[in-house]
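User: I'm putting together a teaching handout on how sequence relates to shape, and I'd like one worked example. Could you take Putative shikimate O-hydroxycinnamoyltransferase from Rosa chinensis, show the sequence you're using, and then write out its predicted structure as tokens right after it?

Assistant: Happy to. First the sequence, then the structure tokens directly below it.
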Amino acid sequence: MCLFLILYIATGFNSKQVTYFKCGGVSLGVGMEHRVADGYSGLHFINTWSDIARGLDLTIPPFIDRTLLRARDPPRPAFPHIEYQPGRSMKTPLDAAQMTSTMVSIFKLTPDQLNTLKAKSYMAMCMQARRLPDDQETKLHIATDGRSRLKPPLPPGYFGNVIFSAGPFATAGDLQSKPIWYASSCIQNTLARMDDEYLRSAIDYLEIQPDLSALVRGAHSFRCPKMGITSWVRLPIHDADFGWGRPIFMGPGGIAFEGLCFILPSASKDGSLSVAMPFHSKLNI
């Protein structure tokens, strides 16, 4: 029997669905409410659930002391935190070809293909496909786990949402004309900045915002000219064994917004990666 594990965004953590197939396979769909938990905590719940279903003891109890992420008193943000501010909108309206419907596709990349891609600027290709003018600023949202970046690190069983947003930005012209190291350095420098001092400042910044609903991620956060990347490569996404063995696939149940993509590790641990992302029906690559 094979197991497919599907995660999707829902309005509550009570959304679950089990589907049995004639071939003997089973899929488990679980809704994730990000106001309650991030991917790491959600998988902690699912994997613990599968352990208990097999009669195993609880190995890592949930730690739910939210005071570890409490803002300082008084809050004292030390950085502008542009990652939580709206990115630039399109300088020119999108034409009909750029407003076509999208379809989610999953591409599996072998280790050799990954090495080939590392020699190219993926962001530059995206700018070309979107036909952005050279002076158009584009912003990349990168979901960043703060558990190990905070000092001291959070306990292994911390249950909640510890995802911070990293937001490198550049103009489309620079991304397409400059060497590959330029795009790489924009991303690397932004991620390197995400240390305890920066994350504590981000918590304080969020604490003093008058309307947190204005910061909620949505289509406006990821669609052209912006993008969003969420990596599940370091998450234990294939550890939920309910007695039938490890899942042969785990991935998002859908991607609601153009410009948002997920990077998935291989269930067989062969070094390959899969990329799930929505595509317009017409692309200019």
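A couple of points you could highlight for students: The CA atoms of residues 50 and 242 lie 5 Å apart. The longest strand covers residues 137-145.
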